[in-house]
Amino acid sequence: MILSIVSAIVIFAVLIVVHEAGHFFVAKRMGVRVIRFSIGYPPRVWGFRRGETDYSFGATPLGGYVRMLGDEIAEEPSAATLEGYIKELELDLLDGARHTGWLAASGKQGEEAIKAIADELVPAGADRVAPERAQAVLGHAANAEQALLVREITRAGSVKLAREQLCAGRPSAFIEGFNARAFPSQPLRRRIAIVLAGPAANILFAPLLMAAVMIIGMPMTLPVLGTIRPNLPAATAGLKTGDRVVAVNGKAIKSWDDLSVGVRGSDGKPLELAIQRPAGAAVQSLTIAIQPKLASEPMMDGTKSSIWIIGVEPRGDEITRHEGPLKAVGLAVGQTWNLAESLIVGIVRIFDGTTPARKALGGPIMIAQMAGREARQGFAEVALFMVMLSLELGIINLFPVPLLDGGHLLFFVIEGIRGKPLKLRHREIAMEVGLFLLVILMAFVILNDISRLIG
């Protein structure tokens, strides 16, 4: 149980870091100020500040977020948002003074230190920041917003009063600086790129991780027969436990997956299997003709599907297969593409009612169980499980549901068509509906997990 919980937390943490890193790096590239990069949700447990960003861990581990400057849906920055921005500028001043050693030498802390920095940067009787003093105290020239803040502090005589006056007066230079770094005021194409970067990071991470697994070594089940199911074509044709299939209709078979693809893709046509059968110390080579049978077999999502079978199961013989980097990337891209197609088809089948949601959907309990099971099998299995979850996370986040990245992208598409954003009230209602839907979905999958456990 502990292994399952720890495995699930670690897997989710990695995927969240990948997702939020997509938002983070593109936002930074676009010049947007990122205030916090958090793994987990508040309350904040631990973290550190580097540059403009606070990197932290929250007490709720199954989640994370990147907080950028600016209110998410407000048409104008609120007083609280502006105050928060001013405090970020104050932290920038303290951070610069800390790196130069000036802060430690001053012996001051908090607002007292900020006031001292302002007094040092703006000499008595001056109305601008002295460049040489900024270089000595901060290690760099003060930007326009920092210069405006320290001038206001020296004029007002206190940090708190300067904050209040800037929020109330909203000087045009201050608001222009805020808008230049805030997410909501960025051009539409930049906002789309920043939001799209999260799901894209998860989708691109999947083939990269799969390629890494192939290079390091992936367990491969050999095409050695184990259980021969009675009254099915394999038993009728005389196949035996221990037989190794080396070719199907002249095509070489190296793994159990190759054999499965060969049988299922037969369309019911007779197959010619080349077999190697142990015979004491020797190996006997045989060619056996077999007629596949169409049968209804259970699928991973709980439904049944008609497929061609011969009625055999693997014995479990495995080897570790290594691929070269170029071949691994090519194979990984192809396999993740096929997996993504299967996931999308599965999602569509849930929506059209073909697959019951109760059988197909699982929540954190089921994911933890699966994570624990894969962790017991080894690194490759955990990594491949992570590939599937990363694809799912990327695809589901593109759904046009408010609060998901796809919901934001839908707002942007509407804004592009209309030439202006939706009205504030309409966006607020959409967010409330999205939150309600996500809460209902989460409650459903958790109850579904519990019912599985009870069952």
List the helices and strands and how they pair.
Blueprint: H1 2-29, E1 34-50, E2 53-68, H2 79-100, H3 102-106, H4 110-121, H5 131-138, H6 144-156, H7 159-169, H8 172-181, H9 188-216, E3 218-221, E4 225-228, H10 233-237, E5 244-248, E6 251-252, H11 256-264, E7 271-279, E8 282-290, E9 293-298, E10 304-309, E11 312-314, E12 318-321, H12 325-351, H13 357-360, H14 364-377, H15 379-396, H16 405-418, H17 424-454
Antiparallel strand pairs: 1-2, 3-12, 4-11, 5-6, 5-7, 7-8, 9-10
Number of domains: 3
> Which of globular, elongated, flat, extended, rod-shaped describes the shape?
elongated
In order across it, which strands form the biggest sheet? 6-5-7-8
Largest sheet: 4 strands, antiparallel
- Rg: 30 Å
Low-pLDDT stretches: none
Number of H/I helices: 17
Assign the structural class, choosing from mainly alpha, mainly beta, alpha/beta, alpha+beta, or little secondary structure.
alpha+beta
Helical content band? 55-70%
Mean pLDDT: 88
Number of E-state strands? 12
